[in-house]
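User: Some background: our group keeps a shared notebook of sequences we're curious about, and every so often someone picks one and asks for a predicted structure to add to the entry. Today it's my turn. The entry only has the sequence so far, pasted here. Could you supply the structure so I can complete it?
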Amino acid sequence: MTKELYVDMNRVDEYEANGSITRPFKTIGAAAEVAEDGDTINIMSGTYNEDVVLPNGVSMHGSSNKTIIAGDVTIGAIDDQEHCPVSLRDIQFGKKNSTKKVTINYTCEMYTCVFYSVMEFARSDKSVTMFNTNFRVNSAEPAIKSNARILNLMLGTVDNSGTGKSIELTAGMATLNTATAASSNASETILVGGSATMNLMNSTVQNNKVAQGGKSVTINTSSTNPSGLTCDVMIGGVECGAAKVFKAAVKMMVGTINGTNIEDL
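Assistant: Of course. Here's the predicted structure to add to the notebook entry:
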């Protein structure tokens, strides 16, 4: 039977905490120690200066982005067992110019979260979906590094103001849907490497380039709004500006640009 656990760093009573709404734990770590597969940890507002390691299948819900976890966070462990999907809601990970990392090891959905920490998703057999989630990273590492089978970002921004990329894909398929990726100082905003593929749907890649690494970047725009996608793309060593990407999107609507055919689109 799943249960709801509660955490409130601001409690001052000396009662014995049990994780209930009236006797919440003071730290996320205390709740994580007793949480089990399928449980949810509800975290009241405040800045929690602690590293957090969640067991597999345990979700965390914050308080309208007034819940800040300032330490490193690990979601689940890598194993071969099936667990409940994890949800993360209304949490800010890290603070401005954070050097912390969020590592996700299991299927996860995020809703209205903010990341100042970088995020890494290593599982090639799992997926992560982010809704209205924003990354405001200042790091030499990618804001998002993913090996996920499927990575989806809808209605969000991935911005790395450091020297690192916005997104680095090593495998799987990623989709940006009505989203923005930006990196001010990196050699490329998005790196699609290994066996990865990238779908851009009415999204914007700002500042630099998408480096294809020999793989595919799929352009998918509405026939009534082909200019919904803007980016500079580096594919197979051939650079084309936003205007040519518009042309490709208008002509193909849904299709794949590859290095050998870029001039033919």
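Suggested note for the entry: The chain has a mean pLDDT of 79. Residues 1-114 form one domain.
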